[in-house]
Design brief:
Length: 128
């Protein structure tokens, strides 16, 4: 399955939007505005990859071969850092435009691109 960068961003935004102490579960994801455009399979795959990348604190529970539930409790420090780089819609659009010029860009590279886009925007604001 291909990792959908929009799903990554939307999942991180969904997690951040929850009050501290709340978890996002399998049953909640369908009602979350950030996740409504993504399939269950796409969300679960993204959760798996964000756990591997240490961007979220989450657990996926299986019953045999099927996913029984998942619990996403919070973003990690790295997850917050990445989301802070891609949160702004303008930065996100410019970062995706740059990333889409290449056949493959890792999530960490996308974060670096977004960071550089932000740096350039700051320099423009300061008149450099």
């Amino acid at each position: 399955m291909k990792l959908n960068k929009e799903c990554i961003r939307n999942l991180l935004l969904a997690i951040e939007s929850e009050p501290f102490g709340n978890s996002i579960t399998k049953h909640d994801f369908k009602n979350n505005d950030f996740l409504k455009d993504h399939s269950f399979e796409e969300v679960v795959y993204t959760i798996q990859k964000l756990i591997e990348a240490k961007y979220i604190n989450a657990e996926i529970l299986y019953a045999g071969d099927e996913i029984h539930n998942f619990f996403i409790s919070s973003l990690t420090w790295d997850g917050h850092q990445f989301l802070d780089n891609i949160r702004d819609d303008g930065v996100w659009k410019k970062s995706k435009d740059i990333a889409n010029k290449f056949s493959s860009i890792s999530v960490s590279m996308l974060s670096n691109i977004a960071s550089n886009v932000i740096s350039q925007m700051i320099k423009q604001q300061l008149g450099y």
